[in-house]
Amino acid sequence: MSIATGRTQETGQGIGQSLLRPDGTLKVTGEFAYSSDLWLDGMLWGATLRSPHPSAWIRSIDVGPALKVPGVFAVLTHEDVPGEKFYGLEHKDQPVLAIDQVRYQGEPIALVAADHPETARRAADLIEVVYEVREAVTDPRKAAFDLTIPPVSVHGNLVRHQPVRVGGTFTADVVVTGEYEVGMQDQAFLGPESGLAVPAEDGGVDLYIATQWLHVDQDQIAPCLNLPKDKVRLTLAGVGGAFGAREDLSMQIHASMLALRTGKPVKFVYGREESFFGHVHRHPAWMRYEHGADRDGKLVYVKAEIVLDGGAYTSSSPAVVGNAASLGVGPYEVPNVFIDAYGTYTNNPPCGAMRGFGAVQACYAYESQMDRLAEACGLSPVEIRVRNAVSQGSLLATGQVIDTPAPLADMLRELDAMPLPGPSSLDLRELPGGVAQTTHGEGVRRGIGYGVGIKNICFSEGFDDYSTARVRVELLGDEPHVLVHTAAAEVGQGLIMVKTQIAQTELGIDRVTIVPADTTVGSAGSSSASRQSYVTGGAVRAASLAVKERLDALTADGRSLTQVLAEEGPVEETREYRHRRTFPMDPLTGQGDSHTQLALCVHRAVVDVDVELGLIKVVELAAVQDVGKILNPLALEGQIHGGTAQGLGLALMEEIQVRDGKVLNPSFTDYLIPTILDMPPMKLSILENPDPHAPYGLRGAGEPPTLSSTPAIAAAVRAATGLPLSRVPIRPDDIALAVLA
Amino acid sequence: MTTLTVNGTEYPLDLADPRVTLLDALRDRLDLTGTKKGCDQGACGACTVLCDGRRILACLTLAAQCDGREITTIEGLESHPLQDAFVRHDAFQCGYCTSGQIMSAVALLGENRAGTDADIREYMSGNLCRCGAYSNIVAAVREVARHA
Amino acid sequence: MHEFRYERPATVAEAIRAVAHDPEADFLAGGTTEVDLMKDGVFHPDLLVDITRLPLRGVRRDGTMLQVGALTTMEELASDRTLMERAPFVVEALLRGASVQLRNMATIGGNLLQRTRCRYFRDPAVPACNKREPGSGCEAVNSVARMHAILGASPACIALHASDLAVALVALDAVVHIQSEEGERLVPLTQFYLMPGETPDRENVLRHGELITAVDIPLPPEGTRSIYLKIRDRASYEFALASAAIAVIMDGPVIKEARVAMGGVGTIPWRGFEAEEVLREAPATPDTFRSAADGTIRDPFIVPGTAFKVELAKRTLIRALTEVTS
């Protein structure tokens, strides 16, 4: 396995510098070992038999034909699960392998291990399953509210209902209403799910896996294998993107079961199609909003009903619903709030974590509403937002006081003041239609739109959210050297640089090595919720400071650091770091200090729309984001670009199409993500208003841009076309045909 | 026995069962895992390699078809300036598409198509990057093209 | 993937013989469609006859015609200077048709035989597909359709022909050279493709064992203007929702001669003879263009998901005509 090593910078070090990726050289030479690249002699290949039906009873499973295939070593069903039969992030409701019924298309039913991946695949296809197909429950609103609909889950059809209630005035001079939909988005990481399970001599298993959270995997795997946790050891393998899709388990238990059964290493690699069935997606949403304001555009109230389809199993839906509810009015001061956010169970594909996590869907709706309100009040999109913007001291809808800088109005003014791009250049490729050069300007209208997003950073609602870091200073080749060991998953976000830079800053030592993440050190929590710089950064800082304190004491007698390390040996400290405590939302009123940190990003989108043909060219995206403290400028910009690009994808092209519970487009031919031609250049302004509660004053940065780019682009397209466009993604036909009508 | 020439080395390959793509041959038989499998159906570009100097997709090419051809993979680049430029411009995050991006860009330079940013974007549009590092990919390719 | 044998004969005659004498054999060229469909389990030949090294590659000018070897790659043809000068819309169709990587692999002959992207055809787990399993029905007509045909379609099949190149070539009356053990025959591309009718599994006039060896592209007269305009869901690397290939000869504001074909709408690359009739000797005005569009998109067969294509296709054609005549 490749181990990324820290390297000394020639000039500058520590936080604030653009330390290049220590694993970059391995990634540009092809040497970096992703989970799909792992190889052990004699290993077997796993394959999964999945349900073709979204809802069915399983009347029988006959593995006999598969077992007869030469090269097959094991075929397993739910009966072979050694321990607990269910797992899950919030509720243990997902069967390791289907028991008596399937609740979504693609649900795993049986496993095969064979000496060749094709053999395993073919054998899996030979397993005979007799289904009794049921009518699938696929309408989340019916599932939530129609009591005659049969329950999909043992928990009924409602994952969570979270109301938010503030004030009692729900009349106003100016009222705008709207219904909005967000399609089901996929994380679509480029490196499909994969991993290698190796049986160990102690009866346990060593798992090399691409995941976002080693310890929560371990917590879920061990009981299902009926093993103590210390016998389920995980090491992070190279991760080909995550974006939330690796927070839930995929093949971890499956590979371990086969490895333990066969006594051989077992490797799983999902294909692209299987990947679409192998992880959760972003919840599709149906939202009804009503905004009331006075004639000056000052918000009086917001009412909202938000329905998020969680699909067949719970995954992280409860927390997603919590976010949609608590952030459902956006970063605006609203004295009266009436929100009902629902998460439902259906026989649709399970949904869970994706970058932006519940805040994305609501943001699209409330920002669309703010534009309608602006129009109704005769104000500009910027002005309506400035007039209602939160600032430090404002109350969120949950009653939580924003007790750190939140200069939204200033951010909006700065965004507004950024120079606009000129008219489209003479290069026709810059017009809608791009390289297809569909126009010399006929039918093309420009539109400008704004989007504002607020995202909670770190886990919320009382979760004990922490990270652990072990920092060790020792001599290596007669020079002081730092080893930083955490279980935090580097998924491409650049945490590996941040950890290195923090150790350099606190210890004043250039040479830093990041030890591979594994479960021999305490949990780091998830690489999600934009939290790792905050929490693991905080842990690395705390451990570094503890080491520094000891080193300072040891060198107080005048010895050099090198001398001390030579005479006393390595100095090592392990620290846990927790952010400020959060609290659950009141189940009836939604009130409570549920978030520890809030981050703002604002986007301006400039689009050219060919209104006759429905083609959209995003000309420019500008963003202002407050990150508290910039740790690594280059990597930070990459995060903003990336988050913005995924928001662009949701606005204009990305949707998993589901009909009767079945996915219609599980391929990169039919599920489109933005190409290099779709993503325009960006203008960025990054602010540093510190959050005194966070290490270095930083704010998590990876998610906020994903929120605000979608509504900004949608608003720009509306401005160009005059169409309501209440659903994303917006397709050419939505524009071309509507303009006709 | 088929002979596959990869990065200047000749590899004998038993293709008695010819159901092996170039991509699987490289990854599973020659242990050259730098070439990535993103979609296995020609829709992402992660498996881009050079065949006789031209960029192709290894996932839709049968290994048997490459008998006697010169294949170049990411492992065959010897400190190409694009590799350094990709690191310095942070032209990737997770890095999974990077081998394909770089091989595609190497070919692009050879095709003399990196004259403008618009050209770079057009002729790199067969390589998806989900992390959205596109601006930095353009910057990296542009820099190397200018100094070529 | 189904098991198969692989052969690479040295001559065209041997290759044809190898396929002709094995009913389960197939030619293999660029493989960009074929290998993909073999992985999906849609194609399962027992024998693949690799023709990529046969001497059927290269572009030759022959008077007012370009003769293109069937194994010339899309990228090679796209860089042909004569084609660029005389029929740039063919080059545009090639460049819009696929990424550089795919263009380096895909051949001209293979491109003409490109199979539909209909997702139901490409998924053997879907039982109903008359193209894959004659007589089994059509899932696309009854389920969700969008990237599907509205012209030449029927309740038996609405699979779209996905090629961009073929659209431009039908406009130019390209001619396909077809070789078999019996000898060579020439078929105009406009007569090469078959409407699905009751036999959607038969897409063209090729018989088993016949090989496309070359395509003749008649060069339009000097002074011809042309355009290939493609509408799609993202800026690149995506199939057409609608496309138009048009070549015109202008006499001042009047269209003297026009060739029109459309992609993204038909079960075959759709030649717009009616539009050509309307356009000939007509003034280049919006009214003319609209009636040309109405003439082309006549009696569409639509399902809910494809209804939008009727107007979108017309506008695509009108825009293309506007661009090319202005």
From TrEMBL, chain A:
Q: Which residues form the Aldehyde oxidase/xanthine dehydrogenase a/b hammerhead domain?
A: 29-135
The biased composition feature labelled Polar residues covers 1-12
Which stretches of sequence are listed as region Disordered?
Answer: 1-20
Extract the Gene3D superfamilies matched here: Aldehyde oxidase/xanthine dehydrogenase, a/b hammerhead (3.90.1170.50), Aldehyde oxidase/xanthine dehydrogenase, molybdopterin binding domain (3.30.365.10)
Question: Which InterPro entries does this chain map to?
Answer: Ald_Oxase/Xan_DH_a/b, Ald_Oxase/Xan_DH_a/b_sf, Ald_Oxase/xanthine_DH-like, AldOxase/xan_DH_MoCoBD1, AldOxase/xan_DH_MoCoBD2, AldOxase/xan_DH_Mopterin-bd_sf
Top-level taxon of the source organism: Bacteria
Q: Name one GO molecular function term.
A: iron ion binding
What is the protein name stated in its UniProt record? Answer: Xanthine dehydrogenase subunit D
Automatic annotation (TrEMBL), chain B:
Q: Where is the 2Fe-2S ferredoxin-type domain?
A: 1-77
From the UniProt record, give the pathway where this protein acts: Alkaloid degradation; nicotine degradation
Keyword tags: 2Fe-2S, Iron, Iron-sulfur, Metal-binding, Oxidoreductase
Q: Which domain of life does the protein's organism represent?
A: Bacteria
For this protein, the record's Pfam families field holds:
Fer2 (PF00111), Fer2_2 (PF01799)
| GO MF terms, alphabetically ordered | 2 iron, 2 sulfur cluster binding; metal ion binding; oxidoreductase activity, acting on the aldehyde or oxo group of donors
Q: What is this protein called?
A: (2Fe-2S)-binding protein
Automatic annotation (TrEMBL), chain C:
Keyword terms: Oxidoreductase
> What is the official name of this protein in its record?
Xanthine dehydrogenase family protein subunit M
| Domain FAD-binding PCMH-type positions | 1-222
Q: What molecular function terms (GO) are annotated for this protein?
A: FAD binding; oxidoreductase activity
Organism in which the protein naturally occurs: Herbidospora galbida
Annotated PROSITE patterns:
FAD_PCMH
